[in-house]
């Protein structure tokens, strides 16, 4: 994976994009942004015609995907060599649509255990300066499979 600076436009200035040749992180147009105080990691997604619903807001399933990816990457920051994680539970509350964007998901690890990690994610519609969704997730900590890349390898922050 290669780190790519994000140019002005689409609400993406100042971020770091993913270039993974067709990986969901690239296809969805996700990019890293500075984490707000208290968060371990933040990712954003610009609103474009291919990701909005018929009412013009970011499609809810994509909000959940953004939440899951941001949380998983926050978990990955604390994994040891030979460890990976798998989403065990995701509970999301949609409070408002993301209709201006970009959508910014800020993930904060609440508890790291030997077998389970719990993460809280807040999604903001930055263009409207409001919280659009809040979520809690738990991740099972599992062994890497043979040949599986370490989850930290999906981060441009290395």
Automatic annotation (TrEMBL):
Q: Give the superkingdom in one word.
A: Bacteria
Q: Where is the Thioesterase domain?
A: 60-131
Which SUPFAM superfamilies does the entry mention? Thioesterase/thiol ester dehydrase-isomerase
Q: What UniProt keywords apply to this chain's record, in alphabetical order?
A: Hydrolase
Q: Which Pfam families match?
A: 4HBT
GO molecular function terms noted in the UniProt entry: fatty acyl-CoA hydrolase activity
Please tell me whether the keyword Oxidoreductase is annotated for this protein.
no
Q: Which InterPro entries does this entry report, sorted A to Z?
A: ACOT13, HotDog_dom_sf, PAAI_dom, Thioestr_dom
PANTHER family, alphabetized: ACYL-COENZYME A THIOESTERASE 13, THIOESTERASE SUPERFAMILY MEMBER-RELATED
Q: Which family does it belong to?
A: Belongs to the thioesterase PaaI family.
**Name listed for the protein in its UniProt record:** Uncharacterized protein (TIGR00369 family)
Q: What species was this sequence derived from?
A: Actinocorallia herbida
Query: What does UniProt list as this organism's lineage?
Result: Bacteria, Bacillati, Actinomycetota, Actinomycetes, Streptosporangiales
């Amino acid at each position: 994976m290669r780190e790519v600076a994000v140019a002005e436009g689409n609400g993406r200035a100042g971020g770091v994009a993913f270039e993974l040749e067709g990986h969901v992180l690239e296809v969805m147009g996700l990019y890293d942004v500075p984490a707000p105080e208290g968060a371990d990691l933040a990712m954003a997604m610009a609103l474009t015609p291919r990701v909005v619903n018929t009412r013009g807001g970011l499609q809810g399933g994509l909000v959940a995907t953004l939440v899951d990816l941001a949380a998983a990457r926050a978990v990955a920051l604390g994994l040891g060599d030979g460890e990976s994680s798998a989403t065990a539970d995701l509970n999301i509350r949609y409070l408002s649509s993301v209709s201006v964007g970009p959508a910014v998901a800020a993930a904060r690890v609440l508890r790291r255990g030997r077998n389970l990690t719990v993460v809280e994610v807040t999604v903001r519609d930055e263009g409207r300066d409001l919280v659009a969704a809040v979520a809690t997730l738990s991740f099972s900590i599992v062994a890497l499979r043979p040949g599986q890349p370490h989850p930290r390898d999906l981060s441009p922050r290395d």
